[in-house]
């Protein structure tokens, strides 16, 4: 282990080493969270957090459990001189339509109340409190519409083969569709319509 040294620069946004440095730096926090026997039971494991670089998600089936996890992070931040930005934090209560309304208490981090939301984009995927995927499908439909229009404007003079290859590369590849499990027929039909219309106009 090296001698102590002062940190004068943060990690670069999008840098190759950044995720690795975050994982090393926050590994102790992950260990501490794992030691708290609070979370969702999956098989023989208790899962209470998901960590990807500097994105941390705390998971608990109870408000008391979530409060315990937040206090663990707050304590870790004080001990390691880490400031968690409350403005970038959010609390979401997942519920089905059949469950009666539940008053979610305030959660405090560093003396500030964390915002309660019904919709949140995590790693590009839109999550909603009712666990439906229509909002994320709409995100994909809009993205497809923009990409399709770009191809139509810039490559209308290309050959049929080139157009098909471009469409497959830029419009057929979709982000997180394998996570769509609860959606309306209307939402998926709109996506299909956007897909077929973009292809039809392009060729």
What does this structure look like?
This protein has 203 residues and is an alpha+beta fold. It has 2 domains: 18-117, no CATH class; 134-202. It has 6 helices and 10 strands, in the order H-H-E-E-E-E-H-E-E-E-E-E-E-H-H-H. The strands form 5 sheets. A two-stranded antiparallel sheet has the order 1-2. The protein has a two-stranded antiparallel ribbon with strand order 3-4. Helix 4 packs antiparallel against helix 5. The N and C termini lie far apart (62 Å). This is Reverse transcriptase domain-containing protein. InterPro entries: DNA/RNA_pol_sf, RT_dom. One of its GO terms (biological process) is DNA biosynthetic process. Pfam families: RVT_1.
Low-pLDDT windows of residues: none
Radius of gyration from CA coordinates: 22 Å
Bulk shape: globular
Q: Count every beta strand, where a strand is a DSSP E run of 2 or more residues.
A: 10
Main sheet strand line-up: 1-2
- Output the helix-strand order: HHEEEEHEEEEEEHHH
Measured between the Cα atoms of the first and last residue, the distance is 62 Å
How many helices? The count is: 6
For the biggest sheet, the summary is: 2 strands, antiparallel
Mean pLDDT: 90
Count of separate structural domains = 2
Helix content: 40-55%
Assign the structural class, choosing from mainly alpha, mainly beta, alpha/beta, alpha+beta, or little secondary structure: alpha+beta
How much strand content do the residues show?
15-25%
């Amino acid at each position: 282990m090296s001698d102590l040294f002062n940190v004068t620069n943060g990690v670069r946004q999008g840098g190759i080493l950044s995720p690795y440095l975050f994982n090393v730096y926050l590994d102790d926090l992950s260990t501490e969270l794992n030691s708290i026997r609070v979370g969702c039971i999956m098989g023989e494991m208790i899962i209470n957090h998901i960590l990807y670089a500097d994105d941390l998600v705390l998971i608990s089936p109870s408000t008391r459990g979530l409060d315990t996890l937040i206090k663990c992070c707050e304590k870790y931040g004080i001990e390691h001189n880490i400031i968690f930005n409350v403005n970038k934090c959010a609390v979401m209560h997942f519920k089905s339509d059949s469950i009666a309304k539940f008053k979610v208490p305030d959660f405090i981090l560093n003396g500030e109340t964390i915002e309660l939301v019904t919709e949140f984009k995590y790693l590009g995927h839109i999550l909603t409190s009712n666990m439906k995927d229509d909002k994320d499908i709409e995100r994909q439909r809009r993205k497809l519409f923009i990409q399709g229009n770009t191809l139509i404007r810039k490559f209308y003079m290309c050959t049929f083969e080139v157009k098909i290859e471009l469409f497959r590369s830029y419009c057929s590849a979709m982000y997180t569709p394998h996570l769509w499990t609860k959606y309306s027929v209307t939402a998926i039909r709109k996506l299909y319509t956007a897909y077929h219309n973009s292809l039809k106009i392009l060729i």
